[in-house]
Automatic annotation (TrEMBL):
Converts 2C-methyl-D-erythritol 2,4-cyclodiphosphate (ME-2,4cPP) into 1-hydroxy-2-methyl-2-(E)-butenyl 4-diphosphate. GO terms for molecular function: 4 iron, 4 sulfur cluster binding; 4-hydroxy-3-methylbut-2-en-1-yl diphosphate synthase activity (ferredoxin); 4-hydroxy-3-methylbut-2-enyl-diphosphate synthase activity (flavodoxin); iron ion binding. [4Fe-4S] cluster binds at residues 263, 266, 298, 305. Keywords: 4Fe-4S, Iron, Iron-sulfur, Isoprene biosynthesis, Metal-binding, Oxidoreductase. It is an enzyme of class 1 (oxidoreductase). InterPro entries: Dihydropteroate_synth-like_sf, Enolase-like_C_sf, IspG_bac, IspG_bac-typ, IspG_C, IspG_TIM, NO2/SO3_Rdtase_4Fe4S_sf. The gene is ispG. It comes from Campylobacter corcagiensis. Residues 259-346 form the IspG C-terminal domain. HAMAP family: IspG. Binds 1 [4Fe-4S] cluster. This is 4-hydroxy-3-methylbut-2-en-1-yl diphosphate synthase (flavodoxin).
Amino acid sequence: MVKRYKTKKLFVGDVAVGGDSKISVQSMTFSKTKDIKATLEQINRLYFAGCDIVRCAVLNEEDAFSLAKIKESSPLPIIADIHFNYKHALRVAPFVDAIRINPGNIGGKERIKAVVDACKERNLPIRIGVNSGSLEEQFEDKYGRSVDGMLASAEYNFKLLEDFDFTDIAISLKSSDVPSTMAAYRALRPKCDYPFHLGVTEAGTTFHATIKSSIALGGLLLEGIGDTMRVSITGELEEEIKVARAILQDTEIQPSGVNIISCPTCGRLQSDLVKAVKIVEEKTKHITAPLNISVMGCVVNALGEAKGADVAIAFGKGQGFVMRHGEVVAKLKEDELVERFLAEVEDEVKRRG
């Protein structure tokens, strides 16, 4: 069991972040926020994919005013993403659930204080988003785009907010490479008790982002670091949520849905395992209860894996077994196994309520 670092608990809308709360999954719309219809469509897609919190960019006044309408219909808490113009934060503060600012481009102390005062008035948390590619000039000049620069920026800014008597803070320390991202989060963790938002920024396409995020976010979570997370993908919104949920499941930090155990293809196979696994994956994707299922292509490892699975198939030559909790419930011909297996899976889900 992973022991998480104890952090301050915040609320983004009705979603708890930090403390003993579940690790929440975030994403960000890519539509122009002023396009209310398109933005709401994306928020709804994220909601049905299992997202907990959504972030929307506020680039101009039209975005800010449109966000008020979006918030009225959004099923998810909304974080306003503010860059360069601090006045946009003041405009949206009355109706959003949190503000994200990048200290590297928001301006001087007076502007940050104005944002803090607006958030204080409405009990809104602020996420300090430090990115290695957009550090404040004084830190980049001294440290370059390094882990030390990210740490210096983060410490300076959370202490600045503390000087303004503000502590409803979350922090992210993102880089586009895995080692720097992990090193920054690890180094800052002992220095404050604020919740961390995990992410690798500019992670790339689905393939590359999945690998980078699995290593960095999965690794940090297994060390007890992290309270909320986003998998940044250049691609479809739903993929971000799918990968994030898989990281939480496969680290066993937050099991949910079906965990499919299947053997690699090899010369011992005497059945069409690839086809069977694809069918099982498609037919079980609606299940949200944590469930371990095993689909194995030969008896070498199948029976051993079946002992630890809730429901299992052990294929043989032209036939095989369906098993539940290590006990054989059916011996059938190959073309009958998957259908019976799926029926047992559904029965197991119902049994669990």
